[in-house]
Amino acid sequence: MTSKKQVLWSLLFVLALTTILLLLWPGVYGPFIFDDYINLSRLQDVGCVNDFYSFLWFVFGGASANGRPLSFLTFLIQDTCWPTDPLPMKQFNLLWHCLNFCLFILLTKEIIRRPKKTNIYFVALFLAFVWFIHPINVSSIFLTVQRMTLMMTTCVVVGLILFVKGRLRVAENDASGYWLMWTGLFVGGFVGSFFKESAVLIVFIVMAIELTVFSGLWKRTFAWYSFWLCCVGLPIFIIATYIIMDPSGLIERGWLKRDYSAQEKILTEFRILWMYAKQIALPSLSSFGIYQDTIQVSRSLFQPISTLYAALALLISFVSALLMRKRLPLVSLGILWFIGGHALEAFILPIELYFEHRNYLPGFGIIIALYGMWDASNLRARRALLFLYVGLILVFAFMSYSNARVWGDDRLLSRTWYQEREGSLRASQRYIQQMLFEGNTREAEKVIDDYMTANSDSSVSMKVSALAWKCPEDFVSRWEGYVEEARVASYTTSTNETVQMLIKNDKCEYVTMPRIRSLLDAWIDNKSYNSSPQFLESLYLLYSYTFKEEGNLQSAMEYSNKAYEVRPEPLIPYTQAVWLYNAGLDEDALEYIQKAKETYEVTKIIKIKGRPSFDVLENLIKSSLEAKKDDR
Asked: Which of 14, 163, 203, 478 is the most exposed place for a label (fewest CB within 10 A)?
C-alpha cells in the first residue's frame, strides 16, 4: 500500500474497532445466565481459589473431555470467589472479541491473497468488520462462559494464519513452510482444544482452504504426503476413533440425557444448519437468544418433510462447492468452511441442538461465500450487490446494538425472550423467576397457567413446580401421575433446582418430604438418571436433604453414604461432618472429617477436587471434644 492508503486504512481500522465497541458495550452490564452458573459456581465448592489445590481443582476439574483448563484459568483473572460480579468478565470477553477482529483481518488478507486481488487490506478489514458486528455473535460474547469459544477461535485463527503462510512458502519450494504449517495445526488444534475441544475442527477448515484457494498448487512429494497424512489424516482418525470407542463413556451417558437419538440429532441438524445460514445472511432480531428449546426434532427423514429438503440442499451445496472450487474458489471455501466448522458439534456429539455461539468461527464462511459471489459478478451486478451488502451492514449494526441492549438488562432480557419464545420452557422459567423476584406473583402465576395450558407434554420438573405453586385440590392425584411419568421421562437439567425448590416450599401443604421422596424414587429407577454416577449421586444427596429437613439425621446420613458409594466426593463426608458436629455428635463428626480428608487425598490424584476448610472444622470438633472432657 502507498503511504496515503496506509493512513486511510489505519483510520478505517480505528473507526471499525470503535464501532464494534460502541455497538456491543451495552451488553457488558448483563447478568450471569444459563451455563455461566454451572461452570463458574464451581468456585463456590471451595469457597475461593486461595491455595494450590483449589487452583488445580477449578482449572482442571471441568466436566468436558479435557476439562478446558486454559479457559477456566482466565476466569481467575477477574475473580477467585463466587458469587462474583459479571461486569469485568463480560468486559474481558468484549475486548477479546476485538482481539479476534484483528486476527480475522490478518487471516482474511492471507486467504484472499490467492487468487491475487487488489486492495486486499481494505477487503479484509471490510469482511472482518461485517462479521464482528453481526448480531449472531452477541451471545458468544455475553454468555460469559463462552469465553471458551472466543479463545478457542483465537488459537484456530492464529493456527490458520501460520498454516497459510507456511503453505505459501511450500508453493515457492521453500521446505521451511512445512514447519509453519505444522506449528499452525499444533497451535490451532492442540493448544486450542484446551480452551474448547471443537478447536480440532481446524483440520476441516485447512482441508477447505487447500481444496479451494490452493487448488492446483499441490506438491506431490514425500514431505507433502507425509504432512497431510500425519497432521490431517491422523488427527481425523484419532477423533473418529475416540468418538466411536468412547473410552470415558461421556458420549454414551450424554445420549441418555436427550429426548432424541443420535440419528434424530443428525437429521435435525440438517435443518438447523440452514437456520444458522439464514440468520447469518438475512437475520431476524426476534430469532436471537439462547433459549431455542422449541425446535422440532426430526424423527425421520420425512418427519417433518423439511428434513428431506434440508438434507438434499446441504448435499447439493457440498457437491457444488467441490465442483466449483477452481472456478469460484472463495464461494467454495465459504461453503466448505461453514459445513466443516459445524461437523463436530452439529452432527456427532450428544449436545443440545441449537446455540448461536457455535457459529462464531464457522459462520465466517458465509461471509466469505457472499464476498466470493460479489467478486465473481460482472460490474453491473457488483454495484447492485454492493448496495444490498451496505444495507445489510446497517441492519447488522442496528440488530447488534439492540441485541446487546437486551443482553445488558436482566429484566428486559427475561421479558423479551419470554415474548419471543412462545412455548419455551427455559424462557418461561426465567421470566417466572424474574417476576417472583420483583414480587409480581400475579404475572408469574399467569405465565405458569399459560405454559401448562399450551404444553401438556412439558417436563416433569416444570409440571411439579407448577403444581406446587398452584396447590390445587386435586394435588395428590396429579402428583401421583407425575411420579409415574418421571419413571420413564428423559433427563432434564432442571431436576436438582426443582427438588431444592420443593424442599424449601412453604406455600403448599401437600408438598411433603415423603411425596418428594416418591418423586426421587421414580427418577432413581429411571435409566436416564441411574446410568450416570453423577446424576445418581445427586439424587441420593437430594434424598438425604429431605430427611435432614425433617430432622431425621440417621436417614440423612444413610442416603449421603449411598451417594458417596456411587461417586466418592470429599464434600459429601465433609457435609456429614458438619451435620454431626451441629448435632453434638463430635466423635462421629471427627470420623467423617477424617474420611473427607482421606477422600480428598485420593481424588486430588485421580481427579482434582476442591478442599474445603477441613482443618478448621477438625479443630472445632477437637475443641468441642476437649471441652466435654473438661466438663466431666
From this structure: 14
* CA separation for the pair 258, 269 (Å, rounded): 15
Q: What is the largest CA-CA distance in the chain?
A: 101
pLDDT in tens, 583-610: 889 899 999 989 988 887 776 533 444 4
Query: What residues form DSSP beta bridges with 303?
Result: 300
Sorted by sequence, the CB contacts under 8 Å of residue 318 that are 6+ apart come out as: 335, 336, 339
Distances in Å between the alpha carbon of 572 and those of 496, 568, 611?
Answer: 16, 8, 12
Helix then strand then coil, in percent of the chain rounded to 5, is 75, 0, 25
246-255 pLDDT, tens digit per residue, is 766 667 767 7
| pTM of the predicted structure, to 2 decimals | 0.81
Q: How confident is the model at residue 395 (pLDDT cuts 50, 70, 90)?
A: very high
* Mean pLDDT value of segment 607-616: 55
**Three-class SS of residue 81?**
strand
> Residue 289 in 3-state DSSP?
coil
Instruction: Report angle CA 609, 523, 564 to the nearest 5 degrees.
Output: 30
Residues 195-221 as b/e (b if ≥16 CB within 10 A, e otherwise) read bbbbbbbbbbbbebbbbbbbeeeebee
What Cα–Cα distance (Å) separates residue 437 from each residue in 69, 412, 440, 450?
Answer: 35, 14, 8, 19
Distance between CA 78 and CA 71 in Å, rounded? 12
- Among 101, 94, 67, which Cα is nearest to 78's? 94
C-alpha 520/C-alpha 560 separation (Å) is 14
